[in-house]
Design the sequence.
């Protein structure tokens, strides 16, 4: 037995004798990483806000009333966890204020997603966004003002930079997109309680981290708090940590966050264009926490709201709509 293993064994034995378990956690997060399985635990241990009116929470209450106690208990694995809010509509300010005020009342931090860039998602399942640059600037201004003096973590524009890198966004729109993202960073950072992470796709999307890092620099990531990986995807956490460090090295040590909401079983095998939209057999991943074990990884977050559809594929409703059967499957397989 090596000296390192003997030391680790002694530490674990001491913890057992003192009555401590890995699930005890600390004030800055839930359990340490568990290899992908999300276990129920007190939301009070998380630094992030749990929305008591989330679709999952409403579904739990409905199923209890219907006598589906076992299903309701499983779905608590989602309802009791902090998930990101995705303010939408012409003016996001009201939704943002509701989230940050709810978080502040409990001494927590709201996690928000700004997702309204013009020409969003290249016309695919989540197409839409602001009609033009001026409308987007007004939208992000309302978003930022809604935060005010509160604390918030903002994941900025999922897919927007990777779609520039992979060529999905037409070349004539690239400069506008870089300008809008860098402007959004500057606008959000006018509020000192805000941390901003620019979305950077995932390790299976942009294979050359050098191209991604170059695009992130042009989008102003140096003025943000870092970048975000695996948003709405299923890549395993360890893979994203390794990829994040590679991108970070190219950005002078930039920090990052990882979406672990649905990566408990990793990605579905198959063609890249077929595995991201409501894939069967997936599971909840590591609970949201700031205890990542990596000094550059600031947090594991549930950015994609588990149980909300990726789009009208495999029998799912429109992108972003609540799908209780899919949510229940994610929760059941995380046990």
Sequence:
């Amino acid at each position: 037995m090596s000296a390192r293993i003997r030391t680790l064994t002694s530490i674990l034995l001491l913890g057992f004798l003192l009555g401590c378990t890995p699930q005890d956690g600390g004030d800055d997060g839930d359990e340490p990483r568990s290899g992908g399985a999300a276990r129920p635990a007190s939301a009070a241990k998380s630094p992030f806000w749990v929305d008591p009116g989330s679709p999952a929470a409403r579904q739990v209450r409905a199923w209890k009333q219907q006598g589906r106690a076992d299903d309701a208990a499983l779905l608590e694995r989602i309802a009791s966890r902090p998930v990101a809010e995705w303010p939408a509509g012409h003016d996001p300010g009201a939704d943002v204020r509701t989230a940050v005020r709810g978080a502040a009342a409990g001494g927590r931090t709201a996690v928000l997603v700004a997702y309204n860039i013009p020409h969003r998602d290249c016309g695919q399942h989540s197409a839409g966004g602001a009609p033009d640059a001026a409308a987007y600037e007004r939208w992000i201004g309302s978003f930022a003002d809604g935060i005010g003096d509160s604390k918030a973590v903002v994941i900025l524009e999922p897919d927007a930079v990777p779609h520039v890198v992979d060529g999905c966004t037409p070349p004539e729109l690239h400069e506008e997109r870089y300008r809008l993202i860098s402007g959004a960073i500057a606008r959000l950072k006018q509020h000192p309680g805000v941390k901003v992470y620019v979305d950077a796709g995932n390790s299976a999307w942009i294979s050359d981290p050098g191209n991604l890092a170059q695009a992130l620099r042009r989008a102003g990531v140096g003025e943000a708090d870092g970048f975000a990986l695996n948003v709405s995807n299923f890549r395993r956490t360890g893979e994203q940590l390794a990829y994040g460090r590679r991108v970070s090295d190219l950005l002078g040590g930039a920090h990052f966050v990882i979406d672990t909401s649905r990566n408990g079983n990793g990605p579905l095998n198959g063609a890249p264009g077929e595995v991201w939209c409501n894939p069967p057999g997936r599971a909840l991943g590591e609970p949201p926490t700031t205890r990542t074990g990596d000094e550059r990884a600031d947090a594991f977050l549930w950015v994609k709201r588990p149980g909300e559809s990726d789009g009208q594929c495999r029998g799912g409703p429109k992108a972003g709509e609540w799908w209780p059967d899919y949510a229940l499957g994610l929760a059941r397989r995380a046990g």
